[in-house]
Amino acid sequence: MALSKAGALLVAPGKLVLGGTRTPTLQLTLLRWVHLPAGGGGQPPENVVRIPRVLQLRLAQKPPRRGREVPVVPTRAGKLLLRSRRPHLSQPRSLTLGRWERPVLVSAGWKKRRSHGDYFQLERSQEQAPALALQPPSTARGDVSFQALGLRPALVAALQALSITQPTAVQRRVIPALLRGGNALCAAETGSGKTLAYLLPLFQKLLSWSALGPALLPSPRSLVLLPSRELAEQVRTVASSLGRPLGLRVGEIGGGRGMASVKNQLHSDPDVDLLVATPGALCKALRKRMVKLERVCCLVLDEADTLLDPTFFDLVEEVIMQAPIAYRPKEVADKWDTKTQLLIVGATFPEGLGQLLSKVTDLGHFTTLTSQNLHHLLPHVQQKFIRLKGSDKVSELLQLIKDHDLSSGAILVFCNSASTVNWLGYILDDHKIKHLRIQGQMPAAMRAGTFTTFQKGQSNVLVCTDLASRGLDTSSVDLVVNYDFPSTLQDYLHRVGRVGRVGSKVSGTVVSFVTHRWDVDLVRKIETAARRRTSLPGMVSAIKEPLPKKRLDSG
Q1: Could you report the per-residue pLDDT of 483-502, keeping only the tens digit for each?
Q2: Considering the entire predicted model, what is its pTM?
Q3: Which of 42, 168, 223, 364 could staple 193 via S-S, CB 3.0–4.6 A?
Q4: Cα(368)–Cα(380) distance, rounded to whole angstroms?
């Protein structure tokens, strides 16, 4: 047998190849290289076996035996999808793996000590964020402006005053669906413009319906629930800028200020059009009868994967139970007996979502709106993975900060615990690197202005936990460093989403330090999804039916 120039294995009579193994009955021998004549003049032998590229790469990795060198399969010419320290493991962008082909992974041997120092990176396959891409010519029909989506001219003018002229892909899909009414679930990648996607239909609904008479207790007309005070402040700022020229009033209550402050905020504007709140502060206000939700026409759960984790689940359930959630779409359109339109927003969703929603509404009438790139690795962000010893992470981080041009953008450094954030902050102080810190154990009053200071550019390095990975606007960030590799694929997607956002001037880069054996398991899944161009495994993008009662009780 021989390997031809065309990539075929020519098998001599009586010989058979079985993955490079030897058996007594089937002798495996390599006879010689055969180059078929150019122009198709010659006829190939009768027995020809095509070698898949994956097998060629696997054979190239095997060490030579008995002094014979194994030929290295050269990397195809052209741009790369994945660049490896070992060139023969790089994957060109033009290569598409077959359905049953098993990719050869750079990280396959990363659980061994000798792998320290190895790395690979996912190259940018496009310059523009997927959320900004226009519809393909085959599906694009006419105008794709905000006005064409059904928004009022007053709303369009308010957007233009904020220098927002064209909707993102997510907004083009979500806004018309929400204007039609009915409960909905919006699942889209981070940084795709989900906040405006639900605020614009909400404001149009408030403008269309006149306010009811005065109430005995403060009663907002709409409610947005968010998991952190920083997120609530950010959404309130966006909503106020958009609602002020429309005559809509926006209020906010959050934790860390005390109930006296919450009471003053609620009574200063009892019939606020939109209330932005965190679960803890809102539930305390509901229990003390400082506010009621009987008049809420629209309830938004933003960053649903965090809101419905064990920390907030009971609080969110308490809020939903006190709002008159619509059971069917036609109940949302009834102006005389208005029911609450429920919108769930996030990049990933927990499995318990269906259990909660089935208590208040019909899951069969829930509209699911997902983006095309949901749960995929962002194609416009360069992502590098470095296998390191734990003792080498500090020096690698310091070198990254030293080499980074802070004039091009800021740096986010993610850690998995508050103690690591503090410890790493002391090291940066020793090296005279100006930075800020955000972690959950800090008092809310101390955290309040930290992120605002970072957004204003007064400090270009922020060391933080995953508290800063959910929803916060980080359009000024150019580099994300995963000092500690995230514990889940959902956390990885959220951290990567801090760069390359709508409004960012640069696409950004993410560098991840891979230290532990359990980190390698996640990296393998990420590398496999990147090579296959598929979504990351284990993600939930739809509402599941409630679990059986026995399973619920045991959980």
Answers
A1: 999 999 989 999 999 998 88
A2: 0.78
A3: 168
A4: 26
